[in-house]
């Protein structure tokens, strides 16, 4: 189970210098650009998500 806390030396150093935050922001930016560049729906799954 993942706690979200950095484990090990490499993860702790990355977290300390902000590498993980920069990577997340870059990934989100690329994903946003990808979604906006499509211009239309993909025609993929259109099912329902049950509410509980």
Structural account:
The chain has 52 residues and is mostly helical. The chain has helices at residues 8-17, 19-38. The longest helix is centred in the middle third of the chain and has 20 residues, at 19-38. The two termini are 24 Å apart.
Summarize the structure.
The chain is mainly alpha-helical.
Annotation keywords:
single chain; 58% helix; flat; 0% strand; mainly alpha; 52 residues
Write the layout of secondary structure elements.
Layout lengths: L7 H10 L1 H20 L14
* SS-derived structural category: mainly alpha
Number of strands: 0
Radius of gyration: 17 Å
Largest β sheet strand count, sense and barrel closure: none
Terminal residue distance? 24 Å
| Low-pLDDT stretches | none
Helix content: 55-70%
């Amino acid at each position: 189970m993942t706690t979200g806390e950095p484990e090990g030396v490499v993860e702790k150093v990355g977290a300390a210098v902000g590498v993980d935050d920069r990577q997340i922001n870059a990934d989100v930016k690329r994903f946003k650009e990808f979604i906006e560049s499509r211009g239309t729906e993909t025609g993929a799954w259109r099912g329902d998500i049950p509410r509980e």
